[in-house]
Amino acid sequence: MSDFTVRAAGAGDYAELRGVFAGAMMFEPGADEFGPRMFEPERALVVTDGAEIVGTTRALTRDLSVPGAVVPAAHVTGVGVKATHRRRGIMAELISRQLREVPEAIAVLWASESGIYGRFGYAAAAWGLSYEIDLHRVGPSSVKARPGEISELPAEGAIKELAPLLLALQERRPGVSGRSDLKWQQHLEDKPDERGGKTARQILVHRDETGTIDGYALWRGKMHWTATGPANEVHLEELVALTPRAYQTLWQHLLTLDLAGTLEFGFAAIDEPLQQLVTTPTALNRRVSESLWVRVTDVPRALEQRRYAAAVDLVLDITDDLIPANTGRFHLTTGETVSCKPTESPADLTVSVTELGAIYLGGRQLAEFATTGRVTEQTPGALTQATAAFGWPTAPVSLEIF
Ligand SMILES: CC(C)(COP(=O)(O)OP(=O)(O)OC[C@H]1O[C@@H](n2cnc3c(N)ncnc32)[C@H](O)[C@@H]1OP(=O)(O)O)[C@@H](O)C(=O)NCCC(=O)NCCS
């Protein structure tokens, strides 16, 4: 790494920086309408070899729902190192510096590979569930939508109808990233040459008795016939439902589309209740994977900005190899307000910043880490108390890879 230079990116670096990332991920950069408009050069770092950029990382300014709050979170993206410069410490330098510099109390990312980010104190904090539903076997229940309850929405003008639902979801579930108007535009972009044989995106909405939209689904179809008949594919991209009725009827509609054989969906929460709606849950073909990774960059601020499912009054002894200010004992108390302050009092629990990231969204249990010795209980009962407090009734979900 000593042969190279790390520097903040400039506004003019975007195309080269994107080229490095695209090369590392093996996709063709192509036309990119939104990337340059969303680029925050002051939040990007590059490593150069002479005049050439050989490594990059970026952060996007977005908010994230966490237990009981919506908070700023550095959304880390665009991590890539040229294949010619791999395994010389470039990424390590970029990620370490980025984590020390981000102003937010937490950083989040989706990892291309599980083995990369744990060494920097990131931990998978949300499990994602994906479905590959066999529609011939699944046997959905017989909810019947009344006329007008489910309809299609034209893409034009859709953002102002859908955006409030995402905000409402953020109030209900941790792990959901906020979207600016520009981000919504990018999210709903639908280039014909990138559809891969699928239809244009369809926006399905559910309306309550008063005509108010309280759920939506974004999906595409793909025609597919086999020797034995139709087996069309339904590709569900996103489903947000604010009421049980919206949830039931949107799913019922999608599970019963004519000619369809399979439905794929990659962004369900681990506690997704879809199995309650169908008669053969095994036909959902569920698969669990890591989704959002969290890194706590400022312990007291991060612990004060979320809420807790149970009262807690504990001293946590925390270690952080990368950010010295996070190492030490902190007194966490909840009540009218949450307080997390440095203290000299003896510790009730010893834990590293990595485990704090894992439990931060309430989707993993602190007690899980006691089994492997990654959290140690100093005061009997402290682990039970902390596990209950850091948990949350709804599992986190991340709706998009950013
Ligand atoms: C992943 C990538 C950014 C790593 O960059 P790099 O500069 O080669 O990484 P470094 O040399 O700084 O490696 C630091 C450590 O991470 C390890 N590491 C690097 N890539 C890894 C991977 N894909 N899986 C597991 N460990 C990895 C290294 O072995 C090294 O470990 P060590 O400290 O024990 O020696 C680079 O290989 C790349 O661009 N890959 C393709 C694109 C990609 O996956 N980007 C991440 C998007 S989330």
TrEMBL record:
Keyword Membrane found: no
Region ranges (Disordered): 178-197
Active site: 117 (proton donor), 402 (proton acceptor)
Any Pfam family: SCP2_2
Residues reported to bind acetyl-CoA: 79-81, 87-92, 112-113
Occurrences of domain N-acetyltransferase (ranges): 4-149
Domain of life: Bacteria
Secretion signal span: none
PROSITE patterns: GNAT
Keyword Cell membrane found: no
Keywords for this protein: Acyltransferase, Transferase
InterPro entries: Acetyltransf_17 (IPR041380), Acetyltransferase_Eis (IPR051554), Acyl_CoA_acyltransferase (IPR016181), Eis_dom (IPR025559), GNAT_dom (IPR000182), NAcTrfase_Eis (IPR022902), SCP2_sterol-bd_dom_sf (IPR036527)
SUPFAM superfamilies: Acyl-CoA N-acyltransferases (Nat), SCP-like
Subunit text: Homohexamer; trimer of dimers.
Family affiliation: Belongs to the acetyltransferase Eis family.
UniProt xrefs under NCBIfam families: PRK01346.1-4
Protein name per the record: Amikacin resistance N-acetyltransferase Eis2
Originating gene: eis2
